[in-house]
UniProtKB/TrEMBL annotation:
The lineage of its organism: Eukaryota, Metazoa, Chordata, Craniata, Vertebrata. InterPro entries: AB_hydrolase_fold (IPR029058), ABHD10_acyl-thioesterase (IPR052382), Peptidase_S9_cat (IPR001375). Keywords: Hydrolase. This is Mycophenolic acid acyl-glucuronide mitochondrial. GO terms for biological process: proteolysis. Gene3D superfamilies: alpha/beta hydrolase (3.40.50.1820). GO terms for cellular component: mitochondrion. One of its GO terms (molecular function) is serine-type peptidase activity. It comes from Limosa lapponica baueri.
């Protein structure tokens, strides 16, 4: 592990929208990113979900300048997303072309995820240039992957990547 620290390389871990941001960080700094672990990575999910709305709903959101994106993860029952944010997010979609990431990637996704379909992790795996990609599907896993066994899987996945990278250094 000391060799990893001295090289100042990162293993990025991102969950949900953080998984999408993790992909962008790896694209921007390939020299610094040694590996990625995505948990229910929501690549392009906000944009895709918005575009699936009826045209009338999209126009209403544009006029109001805000989308109350439904969620069960907070008391309000929604996340407030500005229309400007949605428009900017359209400029950062990654699933329409090859993703220029070549480091090891592990994607963990729950098949009972009602927020981000597990198929998105499969799309990411298909689009990245890396040949070292594993997709781990948890049959009973939810979006937050917060059960004890889910957490163990995440920790073990990161540990395995550290061991792999340490032998390469």
């Amino acid at each position: 592990m000391l060799s990893l620290i001295s090289l100042r390389i990162w293993i990025l871990v991102g969950s949900s929208m953080g998984g999408w941001l993790m992909l962008h960080a790896a694209i921007a700094r390939p020299d610094k990113v040694a590996a990625l672990v995505g948990v229910a990575a929501a690549a392009d999910h906000l944009v895709t979900t918005f575009k699936k709305l009826p045209i009338e709903a999209q126009k209403e959101i544009e006029e109001k300048g805000e989308w109350k994106f439904p969620t069960k993860h907070n008391e309000e029952g929604y996340y407030s997303v500005t229309y400007d944010f949605i428009r900017e997010a359209e400029n950062h979609c990654v699933l329409n072309s090859p993703i220029p990431i070549t480091c090891p990637i592990r994607l963990i996704h729950g098949m009972k995820d009602s927020d981000v379909p597990w198929q998105i992790s499969m799309q990411v795996a298909d689009r990245v240039l890396s040949e070292d990609v594993d997709v781990i599907l948890r049959k009973t896993g939810q979006h937050r992957m917060s059960e004890k066994e889910d957490t163990k899987l995440l920790v073990n996945t990161v540990d395995d990547l550290i061991d792999k990278l340490a032998t390469l250094a």
